[in-house]
Amino acid sequence: MAQIDYKEYIEVNPDIRFGKPVIKGTRITVYDVLQWLASGMTHEEIIDDFPQLSETQLLACLAYAANKERVIKVA
């Protein structure tokens, strides 16, 4: 399975949610999605609650977080 290019689905715009990374075309932040997943919600439950989202967009949020973790520099 190929890695999702999160840049196709995630954007940072200072005019939307104070510049936090959001799913393109929405005001839903990557943080929101990660919190829902961390609280135990399934992908299906999230999509049921937010039908404008797709499975690919949820996976893009995870790919964004994984990339962010990979590039964190330790002092």
Could you describe the 3D structure shown?
The chain has 75 residues and is mostly helical. The chain has one domain (6-70): Orthogonal Bundle (Arc Repressor Mutant, subunit A). It contains three helices and two strands. The protein has a two-stranded antiparallel ribbon with strand order 1-2. Helix 1 (30-38) crosses helix 3 (55-71). The radius of gyration is 12 Å and the shape is globular.
Judging from the principal axes of the Cα atoms, what is the shape? globular
Assembly status: single chain
Gyration radius, to the nearest Å?
12 Å
Q: What would CATH call the class?
A: Mainly Alpha
CATH superfamily heading: Winged helix-like DNA-binding domain superfamily/Winged helix DNA-binding domain
Spans of at least 5 consecutive residues whose pLDDT stays below 50 are none
Main sheet: which strands, in order across?
Answer: 1-2
Going by helix content, strand content and strand pairing, the class is mainly alpha
Task: Record the SSE blueprint.
Blueprint lengths: L9 E3 L8 E3 L6 H9 L4 H7 L5 H17 L4
Antiparallel strand pairs: 1-2
Helix pairs in contact: 1-3
Spell out the key features of this protein.
mainly alpha, Arc Repressor Mutant, subunit A, 3 helices, globular
Summarize the structure.
With 75 residues, the protein is mainly alpha-helical. It is 44% helix and 8% strand. It has a single domain, classed as Winged helix-like DNA-binding domain superfamily/Winged helix DNA-binding domain (Arc Repressor Mutant, subunit A, Orthogonal Bundle).
